[in-house]
Write a structure and sequence with these properties.
Helices cover 37% and strands 15% of the residues. It is of the alpha/beta class and 235 residues long. The chain folds into two domains: 42 residues, no CATH class; 189 residues, Rossmann fold (3-Layer(aba) Sandwich), CATH 3.40.50.2020. The strands form two sheets. The chain has a four-stranded parallel beta sheet with strand order 1-6-5-2, sandwiched between helices. Strands 3-4 form a two-stranded antiparallel ribbon. Helix 4 crosses helix 5 and helix 5 runs parallel beside helix 7. The protein binds zinc ion. The site of zinc ion has 7 residues, from helix 2.
C-alpha cells in the first residue's frame, strides 16, 4: 500500500513539476536537454568569434592585451534568454551551463576561436558567495569548454574580497574598488608561455574580466583569450 502511495506521489510530482524549457516554458520531450530545440535554434548568437576586432574585443582595447574574445549569445534584462543565465546562477542548474558551453565549442568549431588555447580558467567567486550559492557558475561553464576541447581546467585566480554594492559609485571609483577583489593563486609557475582562456557567465562593462586578465598577464609569456556565455548589448 505504502509503495503504491509513493509511486502515485512520484507520478504526481512529475505532472506538477515537469522538466521545462527555461526560455519558453514548454515541457521538454525525451530528446531535449535543458533547453527546447526551438529555443536553441533561435538562440541570439553574437557570432563575435567570426568578426575581427569585434565589439567585445574593443571593450578591452587599451586596457589589457587580449588575444581573442567572444560571447555565445546576447541577453537583455527581462528577455526570455536571460532566464537561462538566471537559472545557471541561482536556481541550482550549473550543469545546464556546462552543457551549453560544450555546445558552444561545437557551434564555434568553424571559427578557429579555440585554436592554440592550452587551458581554461574561470573568474572566481568569493567564499562568502560560494557559501551562499553552493557553487561557482563560471567554473561549470569553464569545465564544459575544457571537457569539449579535451584540455585542462585550472583554478588560477582567487576572489580575496567580496563584491560590494557599487551602484552609487562613479566609474573610476568602481574600477579602483574592483581591482583589489582578485589575486593570482600560487600555482602559476607552470603557466609560463601558455594561452589561457578566461571564462565568465556574462560580460557587461568588462571590468571584472579586465582585472582578472591583467593578473594572468603578469605571468611571463601568457596569452589571454576571453569567453562568456552571454554579452549585454551595449549599443
Ligand atoms: Zn523553449
Amino acid at each position: 500500500m505504502l509503495k503504491t502511495i509513493k509511486q502515485w506521489l512520484g507520478a504526481a510530482a512529475d505532472v506538477a513539476m515537469p522538466r521545462v524549457c527555461p526560455v519558453c516554458g514548454k515541457a521538454l520531450d525525451g530528446d531535449e536537454r535543458w533547453i527546447c530545440r526551438k529555443c536553441l535554434a533561435a538562440l541570439p548568437r553574437t557570432r563575435y568569434e567570426e568578426v575581427e576586432f569585434n565589439t567585445m574585443e574593443q571593450r578591452f582595447a587599451g586596457k589589457v592585451p587580449i588575444e581573442r574574445a567572444t560571447a555565445y549569445f546576447f541577453y537583455e534584462k527581462g528577455s526570455p534568454y536571460a532566464s537561462v543565465l538566471h537559472d545557471i546562477k541561482y536556481h541550482n542548474s550549473p550543469r545546464m551551463g556546462r552543457w551549453l558551453t560544450a555546445r558552444a565549442v561545437s557551434d564555434m568549431a568553424g571559427s578557429h576561436f579555440f585554436d592554440g588555447i592550452n587551458m581554461v580558467t574561470a573568474v572566481p567567486l568569493h567564499r562568502s558567495k560560494l557559501a551562499q550559492r553552493g557553487y561557482n557558475q563560471s567554473k561549470y561553464l569553464a569545465r564544459g569548454i575544457a571537457d569539449a576541447l579535451n584540455i585542462p581546467y585550472l583554478e588560477t585566480l582567487k576572489a580575496v574580497r567580496p563584491h560590494s554594492t557599487q551602484t552609487h559609485k562613479g566609474a573610476m571609483e568602481r574600477w579602483q574598488n574592483i581591482q583589489g577583489n582578485y589575486a593570482l593563486r600560487n600555482n602559476t609557475d607552470d603557466l609560463t608561455g601558455k594561452h589561457i582562456l578566461l571564462v565568465d557567465d556574462v560580460v557587461t562593462t568588462g571590468s571584472t574580466l579586465t582585472v582578472c586578465s591583467s593578473l594572468l598577464k603578469t605571468i611571463p609569456g601568457v596569452t589571454v583569450s576571453l569567453f562568456t556565455l552571454a554579452a549585454a548589448r551595449l549599443d
